[in-house]
Amino acid sequence: MDFFSFYRLGEAALVCSPELPQSLQTQQRIWQMVVMVKQWPEVVEIIPGMNNLTLIFDPAMTDVAALEQRFRSIAQQPIFSTVQIGKLVEIPVCYGGVNGVDLETVANFSGLTTDEVIHLHSSTEYMVYFTGFQAGFAYLGELDVRLHMPRRADPRILVPAGSVAIGGAVTGIYPQASPGGWNLIGCCNRALFDPKRQPPALLQAGDIVRFIPVTEFSSARYD
Amino acid sequence: MLSTVQDLGRFHYRLDGVVLGGALDDVAHQVANWMVGNSADAATLEITLGGVKLRFLHKHRFSLTGADCDAELDGKKIRCWWSYIAQPGQVLHLRAPRFGMRTMLAVRGGIDVPLVLGSYSTNLKASFGGMMGRALKSGDTIAVRSTVNLAWGVHFNPTLVPSTNEGADLAFGIVAYPAYGSTLTDSPCLIRVIPGPEYVRFDDVSQHACWNCEYKITASSDRTAYRLAGAPLVRRPDKLQEMLSHAVFPGVIQVPPSGQPIILLKDAQTTGGYPKLGVVIAADLWRLAQLPLGARLQLVPVTAEDARMAAEDLSDYLSQVKQILSISD
């Protein structure tokens, strides 16, 4: 797998990054590498991104050249047929209106009606590529190309918790109220992050997510 | 005016998108803990820009490190980088610091908050950890962990504090890390940076400007990041589309389309999509976090080897402090 490049970032991180367009297959390789790196004692943090992987190590205790060598070697291994397939998570979503203020903007941008946007968004099963950015925030793909939409040039200061959004070629849900630049098309009421749960993030890499359009939620919030 | 419970950070949960967190000045945090006989990872209070009054409900040994806030205990002046005994009812008053940004308050035993996902630190974004996931507010009562099982404390280094009963009540001080003096007063403050993978993507003017121009820390900075204002950094026109999301961590310098650099701090998000100019070396992260809003800084390019030597210097200082206080690992 020669298409990966490796580089050191600062004094305490090694990054493995592909030189090919984003793909699920590359991400499956990343998941497999995460499982392997978890056994390495000198690695203190493992942070997967979209088709890339960063290891954080203790520079005072690590032979960086040797670590990079091992990192390169696991990127060469074939993807096991047992590569992780996660649980199916169904998430009811109220689309549009105050819950999804950018639904019409997305529809206009894509040349579709809002109903078509809702239908396209909710008729696909998404794979969790990785969880990052904020606690419990899962990057979901593949998003129908007709729904791809650039992030807002001017990010919102406050995006409500539970907002279902589109950012470029992926979709996701904001677990907590936060600033954000993605286009908001709906809202869900599931707790995506709970520090009392193990693991705390509901959506884990390899999980399958299905959005179910609803007009209102049957309960206030459930886990 | 933000006070939060902190420790050395929340490790192993960045896979779930959880920020590292922890004391922004981890040098001050560790020394504060050691000066009251705690281990380095006990919970302390990180007090931003002073302006705090605390009343002790019980007798406690406490210490102050980091930014000097002209502290008083019951109206009597006390010093920063010192350890004291407070009697029940005594009031600790911290004013606004003249230099620096954050003061650490450690209490013997450690602040008693639940361990959440392996850390006592406050996650303000996801509202958990620390004091119910939030900053302290007026009227809060802060619990302190029992010291019954804490071995160290009355066994202070005998040359420093006699280990008699009356000695146990003595106050004593530690010399702050030498870089504190220059950090808190020099302007611009020099911050050492290892250039990052996307450094070469900036045009020649920007590559020169980033090491030669001063940047100011803007008011829209917080525990997440210092947002700088100065010479804008412009990328060469390239065919590469938007970067895919990748890991970011404290010290990473991101450059958004505005061209104004953002230096990530302990509460930074776990992934991001902006080009990375470089990474501030670990030995300078605490200094950076002590720079107040409006302060000027200049970035200095260094190598990983320079970073290693700087980390060694800092580690030598911390070892000396432990030795003076008769702490063994």
Describe this structure in words.
The complex is a heterodimer of chains A (223) and B (329). Chain A has 223 residues and is α+β, with helices and mostly antiparallel strands. Helix content of chain A is 20%, strand content 32%. Chain A is elongated and about 55 Å long. Chain B is of the alpha+beta class. Chain B is built from five helices and 19 strands. Chain B has helices spanning 26-34, 179-185, 204-212, 282-289, 304-324; strands at residues 2-6, 44-48, 52-55, 60-66, 72-73, 76-77, 82-86, 91-94, 102-107, 172-173, 189-195, 215-217, 225-229, 246-247, 252-254, 262-264, 271-272, 276-280, 296-301. Chain B is globular and about 65 Å long.
Terminal CA distance of chain B reads: 34 Å
- List low-confidence stretches of chain B: 161-167
User: Element order, helices and strands of chain A?
Assistant: EEHEEHEHHEEEEEEEE
Largest beta-sheet details of chain A:
7 strands, mixed
Rg over CA atoms of chain B: 21 Å
Task: Tell me the helix content of chain A.
Answer: 10-25%
State the separation between the terminal residues of chain A, measured CA to CA: 40 Å
In short:
The complex is a heterodimer of chains A (223) and B (329). Chain A contains four helices and 13 strands. Chain A has 223 residues and is α+β, with helices and mostly antiparallel strands.
List keywords for this structure.
heterodimer; A: 223 residues; alpha+beta; four-stranded antiparallel β-sheet; 13 strands; B: 329 residues; seven-stranded mixed β-barrel; six-stranded antiparallel β-sheet; 5 helices; globular
Secondary structure layout plus pairing:
The complex is a heterodimer of chains A (223) and B (329).
Chain A: E1 4-8, E2 13-18, H1 24-37, E3 43-49, E4 52-57, H2 64-76, E5 88-95, H3 103-110, H4 114-122, E6 125-131, E7 138-141, E8 156-159, E9 163-167, E10 170-173, E11 178-180, E12 183-187, E13 208-214
Parallel strand pairs in A: 5-13
Antiparallel strand pairs in A: 1-2, 2-4, 3-4, 5-12, 6-7, 6-13, 8-11, 9-10, 9-12
Chain B: E1 2-6, H1 26-34, E2 44-48, E3 52-55, E4 60-66, E5 72-73, E6 76-77, E7 82-86, E8 91-94, E9 102-107, E10 172-173, H2 179-185, E11 189-195, H3 204-212, E12 215-217, E13 225-229, E14 246-247, E15 252-254, E16 262-264, E17 271-272, E18 276-280, H4 282-289, E19 296-301, H5 304-324
Parallel strand pairs in B: 11-19
Antiparallel strand pairs in B: 1-2, 2-9, 3-8, 4-7, 4-9, 5-6, 5-8, 7-10, 11-18, 12-13, 12-19, 13-16, 14-17, 15-16, 15-18
